[in-house]
Hemerythrin (Leptospira jelokensis), 145 residues
Amino acid sequence: MIANWDVKYETNISEIDSQHKKLFRLINQIETIYVENKGHLTTKTKSLVEAVSELEDYTLSHFLIEERVMELNQYPDLEAHKKQHDRFTDKILELKNRLTSKSLLTNDDELNVFFSDLIAFLRLWLTNHILQEDMNYKPYIKLVL
Ligand SMILES: [Fe+2]
């Protein structure tokens, strides 16, 4: 099932909310390619790798902006929050490296398992992170970039 935006994810910081919405869209984009091509994903490797790279790039720039906003507002749990971002960044890099390995890109069964796991992981991580971690900084943010 596609992850839908919901008011419960709103931080009321418009720049952050629009970036979070874009992250949902990027995950949905990966899921759409997966769902429409299940069983023959080896024919769509270029689109899949591009979609994952786009998500990776956008996530990194989003994290930097979010961290600058937290810093600007002297958010007391900034370091712990940054660690969550770093851990996710490492995980995405590791998954991207696995994806671009030749053995995975040429095997339909393995690609199916990889994407089914990847999509579940991304959706769970993003929704949990917003609801648990991002909501914690919400009351501290008075200044935006
Ligand atoms: Fe965050």
Observations:
- The first helix runs from residue 14 to 37.
- The chain has one domain: 12-140.
- The two ends are 34 Å apart (CA to CA).
- The domain at 12-140 is CATH 1.20.120.50 (Four Helix Bundle (Hemerythrin (Met), subunit A)).
